[in-house]
Amino acid sequence: MKKKIVSQVQRIGKALMLPIAVLPAAALLLRLGAGDVLDISFVEAAGSAIFSNLALLFGIGVAIGISFDGSGASGLAGAVGYFVITEGTQAINEDINMGVLAGIIAGVVAGALYNRFHDIDLPDYLGFFAGKRFVPIVTGATCVLLAGIFGYAWPPIQAAIEAVGSWIIGAGALGVFVYGVLNRALIPLGLHHVMNSFIWFVFGEYTNEAGKVVTGDLSRFFAGDPNAGSFMAGFYPIMMFGLPAAALAMYHTAKDEHQKEVSGVLFSIAFTSFLTGITEPLEFSFMFLAPFLYVIHSLLSGVSMAVTYIFGIKHGFGFSAGAIDYVLNYGLATKPILLIPMGIVTFAIYYFLFKFAIQKFDLPTPGRVGANEIDNDMSVMPDEGESQDNSVSGSGNKAQKYIEYLGGENNLEEVESCVTRLRLSVKDTNKLNEAGLKKLGASGIIKLDEETVQVVVGTKAEKIAIAINKELK
């Protein structure tokens, strides 16, 4: 039962990444069109439109993410469900504001119903409504019932959510510290996306100039709330300075005969962390080899969040806390320049602390127990003769190798992906060839139970998953 619950929560977390993936584009348009940048009103309005309809996008995106084949029919059903829940609950009680949660709930319902009814048969006289056309209908009907329930049950739930949000926001440095630690600690389980969705899109309210109520730290930041950004600013010193320093420490502590072999991948993923804020490839390079270092990293992340709060630094991002977002959103931030000296201090702390811990406790970080802990090509570059546009598929050799090292096609029940990892349901995790997967570019293999596993492969995870599924078919 517990495994099933964790698996379903992970599935929702993965589904949340689809609508979240549009935020970088929205933030880019919003900032480039702003008066303090290029001052192009229609570009700014285009970005603002995405943030204004975020709940609807979650309804569509989550439904597609939950559906087993990513069908657009489930997305349509998610939109239908969102409108029904939103308008239905407000007809009962106009003070109800479910916000992004309405979209998430509608998306989960639509995706689940799609998986159940996408191939349903009906009598001939109702044949037009059979199959996928039935999904929006049954979703709408289900959400009518949910609207009736939420119309009376949601006000106390809404009050509880607001109370939790108020506590976290009102807890000051302690609140952001706890969030920072949990944000990193939940990454191995893939559950951090769920928590982030509440912090970034639900907790806290701000009424913009147009009178629209905006919720969540990320949404409020881009809406111009001067009090938003406390739950994002502390990530900048970690992702731009701290983790690259950890990579440098691991390079300097690697054995002489392995330094050259690990230098390329360490510096590559360190630069990725600095520039874009994508940290999982770097974090997974030591997360399982030296979990003690990851505990230190999680605690330092919390400390960074607390320090930025104490100094009154507020900054936000549309994607992650890398240099691109730092520069792009500089004009909306409060005291953003302080993140640079703080980052330099963070760099020094990470470097010397990691180096000391690795040498003192002889931790098996990359380059200290062999050259193959992390592959020299995290992104899984194409084999000779494969297409550059689809480095994984091409001749199918890579996909076939993944299938082989995952225990063969008979061992694979479901292959999905999120930003940097494959999410797999298998018959037996003991059949996985971990050494083979690492040779293909995997930097971490997480066995959540006997049937659920995640393989960290870098930012081409989705392309790899598509190639594997194509090969299986």
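^ that was protein a. below is b, sequence first then the tokens
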Amino acid sequence: MLGYYSSLSSEVYDLDKPVGSSFGDIEYYTERLATCTGSILEPAAGTGRLLVPLLEQGFQVDGFDVSGDMLAICRDNCEKRGFAPALFEAKMESFSLDKKYGAIVIPTGTFLLLHEREESLEALRNFHHHLADGGKLIVDLFLPSELELGKLSVRKWETANGDVITVESQIVEVDPIKQYRVSQARYEKWRNGRLMQTELERYPLRWYGVEEFRMILEHIGFEDITVSADFQYGQYPTRAGQTMTFEATANKKG
């Protein structure tokens, strides 16, 4: 099985979505977390695009990621700004900590990388377990707009030292019944016309209907569930392509 977010793809992520770059989500999350008491946990913290701005706003944030390469960049981005948060390698469905959080946040649809139904359910149960009473789960989802098999997409980036990284990606599998697609991407780093490094990676992506995901959260035990579209709090989604942000509370007393 091919992995994802190895060395080259992590470097591309940091180039394409550097610390502080926002889709409207950093401002939204900062506002929604303003009343949060206790620490915040960001699963799939990546290179620190959101984590670092939250630290700069004075929040106490821990983070983890399944990719050691992403975490290495995240640590470096934090250290450059004088921060040393707790960062560790783990999976959303199986991490285990002796700590309860005031909020758990998963932006940009990263939760959808858990394309197997049972592992996604286990991750939600794990989030609920690690939230303090009254703690908030905030997670972004979206409906994929592209499901055409074999259509090739090509992008490139230039690094600070003049290297060029190219990425060719295409969808190789679509399962509309199980609600997921799988993309395959080939990363290549070039220097002065010579190929220096290459990676082949696999990216699964699951999708959910709006009310389907609400019912899943309720089944897990979450309450006070709010759905928002494109970072407009309480505005219900009306079309495909919108970011759908779910906010839910772990009420554990009573």
